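pinging the channel bc i need a second pair of eyes. not urgent but kinda urgent?? the chain im working w is below, pasted from the shared doc
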Amino acid sequence: MPAPQVLTTAGPTSRPQKSIPESVLKKRKRAEKWEAANKAKAADEATKSKKSTEEAFKRAEAYVKQYKDQEESLVTLRRAARKAGTFYVEPEPKLLFVMRLRGINGMHPKTRHIMKVLRLLQIHNGVFVQANKAVMNNLVKVDPYIMYGYPNLKTVKELIYKRGHAKIGKPPQRVPITDNAMIEDNLSEKTKGAVICIEDLIHQIYTVGPYFKECTKFLWPFKMNNPVGGFSRIRHHFVEGGDAGNREEYVNELIKRML
C-alpha cells in the first residue's frame, strides 16, 4: 500500500518592509514639483508663442495693405497733377542710410567724433538715421568720408533680412536676427508692445515711427561687402562722378551691389 501523505500547513511568509528614508521622499516630491512647474511653463510659452505668431501675421498683412494704399494714393495724386497741367511735389524723405567709405588717415578730430556719434567705426559700416536738420548738418561736415541716400522699402527689408544683427547683452554682443522671439524679448517692453516681430521693426524704421530710436539702437551697424564691380572714385563726390556724398535715391542700386 502507498505510504500515507503527510499534509503540512504553513502560514504565509511575510517579509519585513524596508522604510524609505525621509530625504529620498523629499527628493522625489521636489522632483515631481519641478517637473509639474516645467510642464506648466512649457505650456504657457507654447501658448504665448502661438499668440505672438498670429499677431505677427496680422500686423504683416496690415503693413502690406498700408504700403499698397500709399503707392496707389501716390499714383493717383501724380495723375491728377498731370491732368491739371501741374506737378505733384512729393514729401521729403524722412529716412537716410549712411555708410562709411574711408579710414581715419588725415581725418580731423571733430570729424572723427561725428563718425563715432553716427556709429560708423569701420569702413563699409552702415546705419539708418533720421533725415532732420541736425543730422544733415553733421553729414555735410563728414561728406568726403561717407555716402548716403534715401533707401526704399525693398532696400530696408533686404538690409534687415540679409545683414541684420542685433545688439544683445552686457557687454553688447553682435547676434544674427534669427527669430521674432529675440526682437520681442528686447524691444516689446521698450516700445510698449509696438515692436514684437521683424515686420514691426522694418515698419518703424521705414516710416521713421515713434520708436525709431529704440529700433536703430537695437540693430548693430550693418557690415557691407565691397560692391560688385567696385567703386568709381571714393575720394570724389557723387556729382563729380565719384562715390562720396548724397546719392539720393541712387543709393538703392549701390546697396543692392553690396549685399
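so The chain is about 45% helix and 10% strand. and Helices lie at 22-83, 109-117, 133-141, 153-163, 180-187, 198-206, 212-218, 251-258. — does that match what u expected or am i reading it wrong
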